[in-house]
Amino acid sequence: MTLVMKHAATVALLLIPLAACDGEKAKQPAQAVAPEPPKGPVGPPTPTASAAQRLTTAQYRNAIRDLFGPEVVVPPALEPDVALDGFDSVGSSKSTVSARGVEQYEAAAFAIGNQVIADPKLLGRVLTCKPAGVTDEACARTFTTALGRRVFRRPLTPEETTKVVTVITTSATTLGTFEKGLPFGIAALLQSPNFLYRPVFGQGEPKQHTGFELATRLSFFLWNTIPDDALLDAARDGALASYDGVKKEVDRMLASPLARDGLRNFVREWFRLGDLDRLEKDAKLFTTYSVELGPMAREETLRLFEDLVFEKNADIRDVMTTRRTFITPKLASMYQIPAPSAEGFAPVELPSDSPRRGLLGQIAILALYAHPTSSSATLRGKFVREKLLCVEIPAPPVNVNTALPEPTPDAKTLRQRVKIHLLETSCAGCHKIMDPIGLGLEQFDGIGRYRTKENAALIDPSGELDGQQFNNPGELAEAIRNHRDFGPCIARKVFQYGTGMKPTQEDNPTLKALADHFAAAGYRLKPLMAAVATSPAFRAMGAPH
To answer: Which of 109, 164, 229, 513 is positioned for an S-S bond with 43, CB 3.0–4.6 A?
Structure first.
């Protein structure tokens, strides 16, 4: 394979224009059914901002899985995600592709294409016609039309189809067989910005997303992958032009197993759980640490959310206070309870006298929002403020020393050292709204193990959250669950994740309507996701900001 031939697909890629992208486990008994909120679209007819979004790494991998099959291995080196306002999905609306990233996408596209033609089973999934010869243009067109619709998430134009067919037949002529020309066609499609990005052009006045744009928007929001054929058919037939049509598809999508993948990715981005792959702890201080702990802890958190949302259809605020969780023998040993199974994950109900309750008792949060050698009241308090209550904490001033004093005989505990730290006026403004919360979790060390003493001194886990006193981590969890801002913050995070844009002041009426709807639905997450997906703000197309 010559260098000239390898770049034939890239030439085709450049000829396929993006134009103006910015046109702009077992069932559990169900709880009592919560009252249904009012029917119909939620929020005013005000669109939120829209912009072309680059596929995140997870979305790219999911798309390849659904296009060709789970057996296809995607090369690990891809353009990295960039998180903005805490979400990869928001960063994807702003990030561009580096020169190195272009090379990585090219290498991945050819690696995927070569895997497909090397495996008869994989090839059979995408090549439904039998080529009559080396350059069977009709078969190449059938292949391109069918695969291209899934790759671009819309039908290819005649010009796009012809260009890809030409790449396939020209490559096949040079290499001697029809099948050997297919990787070049696959690579041309996979390198196109019409695949790597989610273009938005819109239509009508006021502007609405086209049916295919909305299908893509829905599928990446609810499934974190490309639309299936049924959703593309609904877009083609105009079914997504009305609220009722969108609602029908959204209900179908939320009933699909793929909705679990969508939920898991939302939670992963919301809490930055992907960082657990790089969790580092001082093994001399934390002897229970091992490299598999981070991914294992993440899975515990994700399984808890799945259970509350899909098995129980419960009030999602219970994630703060539930004693039910899913653990392995290793996690059980760290939680100091008997393992519910000899291996793997299994459900367990934590004892009533356990200091652990819900999300803030899980290692995923306790270890991630801590230092490699110690706990951190600031990181944990900031997590609660930013991730759970939607309070923006500004970055510390430049050149300010943020290090805490070392332990002394008079200041053995973190609480005592924080008190000294807060005497610095440049620090006190922000730390006084974070550190008292984090100190409520000080009975969990930097890896999440329970303790009652630090440097032989008793730990005081009491504190106050916006007027609500608490004496221990369980009472702190209750205070957050019942906080006036917790429910609206969840609604905001779901809206932000779904639209891929940081909300602005213009979105406040929509956010208020969604929060009210969420409360009326008993704070169940699936009705909230459906409300976001069918809202006028989500379906209409606003100018990017």
So the answer is: 513
* 393 secondary structure, DSSP code: P
Question: What pLDDT is attached to residue 222?
Answer: 98
C-alpha distance from residue 206 to each of 140, 202, 532, 542 (Å): 39, 9, 20, 9
Count of domains observed in the chain: 1
Q: Provide the residue type at 146 as one letter.
A: A
pLDDT (mean) for 204-230: 95
What pLDDT shows up at residue 403?
A: 64
Rg (CA), the chain: 26
Mean of pLDDT over the chain: 90
Strands (E), 179-306: 197-198
Q: Encode pLDDT of 254-297 as tens digits.
A: 999 999 999 999 999 999 999 999 999 999 999 999 999 999 99
Q: Supply the pTM of this predicted model.
A: 0.91
Say if residues 367 and 297 touch (Cβ distance below 8 Å): yes
- The secondary structure of 461-482 as a DSSP string is --EEETTEEESSHHHHHHHHHT
Q: Residue 395: is its pLDDT beyond 80?
A: no
Q: What share of residues in the chain are helix, strand, coil (percent, to 5)?
A: 55, 5, 40
Residue 5 has pLDDT above 80, yes or no: no
Residue 536 domain flag? no
Please name the helix (run of DSSP H) or strand (run of DSSP E) that holds residue 112, with its range, or none.
Answer: helix 99-118
pLDDT for res 359: 98
Q: What is the pairing mode between strands 453-454 and 53-54?
A: unpaired
Can you point out the beta strands (E) in 57-123? none
Confirm if 212 and 154 have CB atoms less than 8 A apart.
yes
> Is residue 528, in this structure, part of any structural domain at all?
no
Decide if 182 is inside a domain.
Answer: yes
Instruction: List all residues 6 or more positions away from 120 whose beta carbon is below 8 Å from its beta carbon.
Output: none
Which residues form the domain of 97? 3-30+53-198
* DSSP assignment letter at 315: B
